Amino acid sequence: MQLIDDVADRVAIEVLKLVDETGNPDIIEDVKKVIGTSSQTLEEAFMTAIRVRRAEARAMELLASLRTQNG
Questions:
Q1: Domain total of the chain
Q2: Domain of life of the organism in this record (predicted)?
């Protein structure tokens, strides 16, 4: 369902911003628990969005590094 993915991604983006600002990765687990009490489906979509966004960030960092090396 598109709505669940949209909501999960929106929350994941905000959570990852807050983790970056505070340096506290436990925020992810805290939000996951809160979401999970209401919707297991949203919890799963949220964790997928977290993994995808983190993988995207690592890939972008690698690309930037490769550009610098080859630039």
A1: 1
A2: Bacteria
